[in-house]
Design brief:
Distance between the termini: 25 Å
Number of strands: 17
Order of helices and strands: EEHEEEHEEEEEEHEEEHHEEE
Mean pLDDT: 90
Largest sheet: 8 strands, mixed, barrel
Shape: globular
Strand order of the largest sheet: 1-2-3-4-6-7-8-17
Structural class: alpha+beta
Length: about 375
């Protein structure tokens, strides 16, 4: 209906008729990320159809993701498709999806340790794995990248806690304790931890040469020497705007050196690693994710830094004065924008890296996805 002024009155126009798809989903926080978890049995069989559904569900390519469940940041535009029918008890198979914000696309060929943390708790909560009396161990396997992780969750009396008291840097509220363990036997995506065979490589962008440790551990990562940019690795977000702007070209150039296929546009992860703050041990790191400075660090990037710390002559080892901070032989401190993350290492050249994280199942329900 049209008013005398010629405008359409709210609520009086005939809305277009279209189908609405009802999709069961759970919203889970894992570490410093939020992730929507969907069951494969509730989704189409074809991956292309799943991608279209995820893009509309999250509200991309609107940068605000207003008409969807996305949070308009790389840490809140993530999904997990869990194989609720094909997983054995204690082993949960899944695919991780990074839903782009500024374009209608989905990236499957990466890992997210924070979302994996959330999946470890969710698997017990949803009884995809049977809780043990004491501590439950859940093995979760990314069927795309091959990464296998172990999540350890306290389940006293076989009960899965809904809330907990563990708080980590980068999150305001605590959650259920989840220890997550990466092992070198599965943490490479392309078979070789050092794709070029060198601990330091040269990457050329805009006629300038930058030095980086190019490593495939947790996820492929290009860890640059901050001195080449005139930085220390301890800068604030405002001071690193120039680096963020250059990051897409750094990523593409590093990917070419590493031999990563050009269609995989979210890897390697890019960052700088420098000496720790005055009076501290370990290293400082600033990582970039999906075109923005990460407020903390993705666990897979932390694995890459930890693995590189044991490689003499690498950017990470040099930043730590050629000796990784083991704090008694078993931890490495990574100083970030919002505090420090500590990784537990099993050796000076680690083959196992563990993190203390937390998670919480925030919501369970149904997402209504327009059929357009």
């Amino acid at each position: 209906m049209t008013s005398p002024t010629g405008t359409v009155q709210l609520g009086e126009s005939d809305p277009p008729r279209m189908s609405v798809i009802q999709v069961p989903a759970a919203l889970v926080r894992g570490g410093t990320s939020k992730c929507w978890i969907f069951r494969q049995s509730d989704l189409p069989a074809d991956t292309a159809d799943i991608e279209r559904l995820l893009i509309r569900t999250f509200g991309s390519p609107d940068l605000r993701q207003i008409d969807g469940v996305g949070g308009a940041s790389s840490t809140t535009s993530k999904a997990i498709i869990v194989d609720d029918l094909g997983s054995a008890d204690g082993v949960v198979n899944y695919r991780f999806a990074q839903v782009a914000i500024d374009n209608p696309s989905v990236e499957w060929d990466s890992n997210c340790g924070n979302c994996a943390t959330g999946l470890g708790l969710y698997a017990l909560h949803a009884r995809l794995a049977t809780p043990a009396d004491g501590v439950s161990r859940v093995t979760i396997v990314n069927t795309v990248t091959g990464l296998s992780l172990v999540c350890e969750v306290p389940t006293p009396g076989g009960e899965v806690p809904t809330y907990g008291a563990r708080q980590i840097p980068g999150q305001y509220y605590p959650g259920v304790p989840v220890d997550i363990i990466f092992e070198s036997s599965s943490w490479t995506s392309f078979e070789t931890e050092l794709p070029t065979g060198h601990v330091v490589d040269e990457v050329t962008v805009q006629g300038r040469t930058f030095h980086a440790t190019l490593i495939d551990a947790g996820a492929p990562a290009a860890l640059f020497d901050p001195q080449d940019f005139g930085f220390t690795g301890r800068e604030s977000a405002e001071e690193l705007e120039q680096l963020v702007a250059l990051a897409p070209e750094l990523r593409a150039a590093a990917a070419k050196v590493m031999g990563i296929p050009s269609h995989l546009t979210s890897i390697p992860k890019v960052g700088i690693v420098g000496p720790p703050p005055a009076g501290e041990t370990g290293v400082s790191a600033r990582m970039i994710s999906m075109g923005a400075l990460h407020p903390a660090i993705g666990l897979t990037s932390a694995v890459a830094i930890a693995a590189a710390s044991g490689r003499a002559g690498s950017v990470v080892a040099n930043a730590a004065f050629a000796q990784p901070d083991h704090n008694g032989g078993d931890t490495l401190a990574i100083h970030l924008l919002n505090g420090a993350t500590r990784t537990a290492l099993d050796a000076a050249v680690p083959t196992k890296v563990a993190f203390q994280r937390s998670a919480r199942v925030i919501s369970e329900g149904t997402v209504l996805v327009p059929g357009d």
